[in-house]
Protein 1
Amino acid sequence: MIQAMMIEDDQLQQTALRLMRCLGSRAARDYCLAQEWRSLYEQICVLEGRTAGQPTLAS
C-alpha cells in the first residue's frame, strides 16, 4: 500500500514537471496559484532545483 502510494506520488511529480515544461513556467505558475495548488507549484520548483518565485528562462 505504501509502495503504491509512493509510486503514484512519483508519477504525479513527474507529470507536474512535464506540464510545467510544456506550458512554460509563468503559465504553469499562474494556473497553480489560481487553483490554490501552491504546494504543487512549490514541489515542482524543488524538483527543478529552484525556489518558488525565482525566475526561470521561460518566465
Protein 2
Amino acid sequence: KWAVIPDEFGDIKILCNSIKAVPCNNLRLLASGTFCEMMMLESDSSKAASTAQLIPREIDLEHVVLSLSWLCCLCAAAPMEKIHTGSILGMSRMVILINGQFPGPQIETVTNENLIINVFNSLDQPFLISWNGVQQRRNSWQDGVYGTNCPIPPGRNFTYTLQVKDQIGSYFYFPSLALHKAAGGYGGFRILSRSVVPVPFPPPAADYTILAGDWYNKNHNDLKAILDSGHDLPFPDGLIINGRGANGYTFTVDQGKTYRFRISNVGITTSINFRIQGHKLLLVEVEGTHTLQNTYDSLDIHLGQSLSVLVTADQPARDYYIVASTRFTSQVLATTAILHYSNSAAAVSGPPPGGPTTQIDWSLEQARSI
C-alpha cells in the first residue's frame, strides 16, 4: 500500500511522485526543510490494516523527527494469508502483528534523528516493545522493559520518544513482556550513517534484512506457563526466516552486484549458524560497529545479536540456498530461504549445505577474529 498525499498539497505531491511514491510504513526526508509525516487515520483491528496520510511540514534538518503510529493485534495464522504471510511451520498459530504485518514494519532512520512511535495495544494483555541495541541516553524509561516502562494496558496506547544519538547499524525491536516474542511482534531496525560520514565500503546494490530464529508451535501463553511452573522450555519445533518456513522467502539479486544482508537472531532459546550456498560472507558491521572486513563461509549469530555482511552475486546464474541452523544442540534444526539470481537458469536442488553443529571452540575462535 502507498501513502496518499491530498491534492491541496500539489507541490509536495509532485515532489513525492518524482521519487515514485513513499511507502506508508517508511518515512522519508523529501527535500530541504520539508518532511512528510505519517498519521494513522483509521484501522481495522481484524486485519490490523491502516490507512496513512502524508502531511508536509517545515522542519529543522538537524533534528529530524520520525513519527509513526503502530497497531498491535493478535491474529490466527490462517487469516494472515490475506496479508501475504502463510501458515508458520504448517501449523495454525496465533501471531502478534504490527500494522498487519509479521515481521512488523521495518524502521529505517539516520544517525541523530528523533523517533516518535505511538503504539496502540489491541491485544487482551499488557504489552511493551523494546528497541534492542538502541542506546537510551538519559531516557531509559523509553526502553520498553518492565521496571523502566509501565506496560501498555489492553486498548490503550503509549508514545515512545527516542533519539538514535551517535549510532549506526543493524538492530531489531521486539515485545518484551509475557513471552510475546514467541508470538512474533518483532521487526527490523536499521540506523543509517549521515551522508557526511564515510562508510568503509561501497554502497551495495540493495540492503536486505533477515530476521531468523527458532519457533514453537505452542502459543506464547502455553510457553509462559511452562516457565512459570519452573521448567525449561522444550526444544523448538523449527526455525523461521522473516516469518516463514523452509524456502518461504526469496531475495532477488543481479549477477555481478554486491548486496548487504543485515541478519538478526530473533529467537527464544537457540544460537544459529548462517550461510549462503556457494557464496562468501564479508563481515562489515556488528551491532553498530564497523569491523575488520574478514571473509567467512558461515557465521554464528547468538540470541539477540545482529550483524551485516556483504554478498557478491558472483556465481553461475541459478538459485541458491540461504541456510540458518541451530548451534550447540544435539538435534539440529535448519531452515532455508532462497537467493534468486534475476537471470536464474535453475531452481535450488539437492540438500542445503551443512554447517557447524556442536563445536564450541569453532564459535569462540570465530568471535575472536571479529
Protein 3
Amino acid sequence: MRALAAEGAFQALAQGLGEAYLGAFALLLGAGGMALGLVATLPTASTSLAQVLARRARAGRGGARQLLARSWSAQAVGYALLGLCLLLPDPWPIPVLCLLALLAWGCGGITVPAWTALVCGVVPRARHGWFFGLRGAAQQAGVLAAILCGGALLSLMTARGLESLGFL
C-alpha cells in the first residue's frame, strides 16, 4: 500500500511538471490572451469529460487494466510530443499544444475512475481512509516538489539563455 502511495507522489510530480507550466510554455511559444485562456481551460475540461466517459470506456474490451495501459501510454506520448511545438512554424505551435494537452489530460482523466476501482479492490476496506489520505498527502507533496523543481529549472535555464530547454 505504501508503494501505491509513493506511486501517487511520482504521478503528481510528473503531472505537475507538465500542468503547472503549460501556460508558461504557451507564452514561450507566443500565445496571446485567447490562446492562454484555451490552454488554461481545455485540458481541465478534457479531464472532466474523460472521467464522465470513463465508465463506458471501462466496459469495453480488455477491462480496467487494458484501459489503464492504453491511456497511460497515450498520455505519455502526448506529453513527449509537447516539445515538438518548439519546432513548428507559425501558426501551428499553439493549436498543436492545445491538441496534445487535450490528449494528455484527457487520457489521464479517463484513468482515474478505473485506477480507483482497481485500488479499492486491493486495499482492504477498513484501510481505505488511511490509504487514500496517505496517497492524497503524497500527491500534494509531489505537486509542490514539481512546482519548485520546475521553477528552479526554468530560472536556471533562463539565466543561461536557454529558456526553451527548461521546458523539455
Protein 4
Amino acid sequence: MTNFDLLYQPFKQQGGRCFVCAQPFRFKISGFHNLTNACHCPSCQEEELEEMVLLLNTEVEEGAFLH
C-alpha cells in the first residue's frame, strides 16, 4: 500500500469530506508540504498555516527577549 492509499482510503470512507470542517472537497495530494494535511480542504489548510506562522512568530519574539 502506498502513502497515497494510506491517505485516500480514510478520506474516501469519510465521504470525500474535509477531516476538519466536514465540507466536501476534491482530494488533491500534489503540492502538499505535509501529507497529513492532504485531507484538509484548502480553507482549513490556510487557517492552519496562518496559525503556524503566528505561533512561530510568537516563539521567535519570545526567544529574542530571552537572549
